[in-house]
Amino acid sequence: MASNGYDLWLRYAPVEDQTLLTTYQEQFQSVYFKGGSSKLDVAQKELKRGITGMLGQNIVLNPSFSDKNTLIIASAKNLNTAISASLEKDLKDLGEEGFIIKSINTNGKNVIVVTANTDQGILYGTFKLLMLMQENRDLSAINRVEKPKIDLRILNHWDNLDRTVERGYAGFSLWNWQKLPGFIDQRYIDYARANASIGINGTVLTNVNANALVLTPRYIDKVTALADVFRPYGIKVYLTARFSAPIEIGGLETADPLDPKVKQWWKAKSDEIYQKIPDFGGFLVKANSEGQPGPQNYGRSHVDGANMLADAVSPHGGIVMWRAFVYSEDDATDRAKQAYSEFVPFDGQFRDNVIIQVKNGPIDFQPREPFHPMFGAMPKTPLMIEFQLTQEYLGFSTHLVYLPKLFEEVLQADTYQEGKGSTVAKVIDGSLHDKKITGMAGVANIGTDINWTGHPFAEANWYGFGRLAWDPELDSRDIAKEWLRATFSNKEEFVNTMEQVMIDSREAVVNYMTPLGLHHMMDTGHHYGPGPWVDNLSRADWNPVYYHKADSLGIGFDRTKSGSDAVDQYAPELAKRFNDPKTTPEEFLLWFHHLPWDYKLKNGESLWNGIALKYQEGVDEVGTLIKTWGKMKPYVDAARFNEVSMLLDIQLKEAKWWRDACLLYFQQFSQQPLPAGVEKPAETLDYFKSLRFPYAPGN
Ligand code: GCU
């Protein structure tokens, strides 16, 4: 079935297996599904759409029960007593968003029941039923009880009001502010469908580098229109709050969070928003970071700032997501240490409706970072994790990189904060320390491109983020399989081959960009391509040389006790492990250590040879990917097949560019030849250094 990718994983392609098709048709012969609320109405619409597509038949949704029913979709209070009694135990634990899909024997025959405590649960259950069918699963003995493990499952759009997207590589912003509120783009609805189908229940519409204008009445009306579109899908709208807004749009002289007039201004502003959007989610704030204003401008702390905003939204049930992505230009020690140093002492001082949003690693969304040491270190403060779906540092929307593999690695990392097994996932889902609010944010990779994300495979990163936000214990491999089946094909040869390709794609990008713990070597500003030589930016910690510290003696950032001592921000077990290169996992070696070029790696190679071979391995992995994709032609429509093929060719070129530029640059210090097996660079170092990209996207 041809596709331009617009349908994402909601393609509802015809079921090809004839036996299964017949079974499904029987199971959909008599459906009870009464509408009556906006949520149920969108669930019904989706069901009809899915069934028409997959089974090639229209279905009638009966508003009253009959003995003939083969499928019943109804919230618990509308089920007949025999069925609801049999599900009582499961229903009790289901909460507001969970659902049950179960095949139940009643009156001597099997009926599939989709039920929940709420209409929202019914909507999620309906989407899941359709997804299971897209995966061609047998429903005859189905028994699924699901509820999200995380409360806030939220996309962060770094979208500006002029429709550019900071670090966006998939076109312009979806939000057509000029035409809102009058014009509702079909995209808004399809965006909401896609999100609801994977359980995403919140969206921050605007960039963390915020513009106060969005808080003015004219824009609030536009935001209201979007909130109205998203509401039936269970998606709340949030905005970024520019800390200096009281000055910029409120006419005040200060934005000091302890000033009564400032407090009053935010309270009134919140009241104004909630009057139009009663379920407005709240604010996301980037304060005192990379030039953004914040409480520290007035000698106040993050606690003062966050709590002031929290008080403004709390009468309406709103929350504040306060970001921990802070690093000051005056700190001479180590950028990686700063967020922890600034925030951990405040543990327990934030209001109940504040959650601190922490990037997955201590620097900035690199191809690989150790987990952020704040996770597990603030037992009395809700922390949400922030992942980046848009590939700012991982090849934009040109490189095929399956990010759920990266997310899973972080989520499954053990913080040891309460002994062995204290994984980041358990910090995030609130089970390690009992937390009032839990959350996971993903910086969106979505724009106006026809396929939403630029690269057909980048759709999987949106999908996988939603799935992991629903359940951070999921296996990234299973997620890849679901997505492949729904998005491309159910053919086993295809799914099994591409699943492995997706899994391997993450390590490939680490290898050809920043192997063995290297990080932040992207060319600066736009972050497109390698720039390990860059050393001329105003702030030391914006320069790649700050991170790799290559010199004639060796390479890497010494974060041991005798270096910056960043290791000490981890639990004692890990601090000890990371402090010694011999016990540091090699994938983090140069993150924590500055080591001589002849340092011996576990495989017996010298560090120099090891680095060079890793770069080559990364390039080779892309080569393998291209060969494998070539064999997938019979399973994929021509349009998407060609698109991916072209993108993979660019990825290979860029992987070689990374390898050659970095190795030529480091070779100046190592003074050693490239080991056997590593291809000779095609260009000189000067050539690579001369490249300029003034119009690289996303900047
Ligand atoms: C990175 C990114 C910025 C972004 C920042 C943030 O530094 O390059 O564009 O604003 O992260 O997360 O705030």
Radius of gyration: 26 Å
Structural class: alpha/beta
> What's the total count of β strands?
16
Main sheet strand line-up? 7-8-9-10-11-12-13-14
Question: Which bin fits the share of residues in helices?
Answer: 25-40%
Assembly status:
single chain
Low-confidence stretches: none
End-to-end CA span: 36 Å
The mean pLDDT is: 97
The best one-word shape is: globular
Largest sheet: 8 strands, parallel, barrel
Q: Beta fraction of the residues?
A: 5-15%
Verbal overview:
This protein is α/β, with parallel strands linked by helices. The chain is built from 22 helices and 16 strands. It has helices at residues 18-27, 38-55, 81-86, 88-92, 119-134, 186-197, 217-230, 245-248, 260-276, 302-313, 338-343, 404-411, 424-428, 459-470, 476-487, 492-513, 544-548, 572-579, 589-592, 607-630, 638-670, 685-690, and strands at 31-33, 61-62, 71-73, 99-106, 109-115, 143-146, 152-156, 202-204, 236-240, 282-285, 319-323, 354-359, 383-388, 439-443, 554-555, 595-596. The strands form 3 sheets. Strands 7-8-9-10-11-12-13-14 form an 8-stranded parallel β-barrel. Strand 7 (152-156), helix 6 and strand 8 (202-204) form a beta-alpha-beta unit. Helix 20 (607-630) packs antiparallel against helix 21. It starts with 17 loop residues before the first helix and ends in a 9-residue tail after the last helix. The model has no long low-confidence stretch (mean pLDDT 97). Alpha-D-glucopyranuronic acid is lined by residues 166-167, 208-209, 286, 290, 325, 364, 392.
